[in-house]
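Dear colleagues,

As part of the handover before I leave the project, I'm documenting each prediction I ran so the next person doesn't have to rerun anything. This entry is a single chain, and its sequence is reproduced below.
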Amino acid sequence: MIGMVDIHINKEEQNFLLQVLHKNKIGFGECIGDLREVSYEELAEAVQEGLKTSLKYYKVDVEASEPWKKTKYRSWKKFYSRHELLSVSYNTEETEEKRYEIFLWEKELTRNAYTTPKKENMFYLSQEEFETKFYTVFDTLRSRIEE
């Protein structure tokens, strides 16, 4: 089973919006619920809670949401232009050393889409490493946004 959480980072305001995703019955990732603003200090705990929620709804039919429509931007294009995307996934079937995956998505501006991350923007962590190194990895990826 795979749990998924996205962290949308507003480049201008430097705030963090947390989005829970789940794998539906046919294997696609879908947003569930609304975006939730989270402070930097609460981020690791909020990600853990989001992953638990995601796993709870793994391959369960849940109405997908389009949470950016409820933001002040109202459209995907405007939301996308102001946010970078960092994802955290938790795989219950992966080895302990690679249980958590944290990565920064690349942007494809012509399609207003996030594409695959570069290898140097992907980190694999065990449970223990997640608890001790989450903020170090997060800050490293966040520093690469402007690069």
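The chain has a mean pLDDT of 88. Residues 127-143 form the longest helix (17 residues).

All the best with the project,
I.
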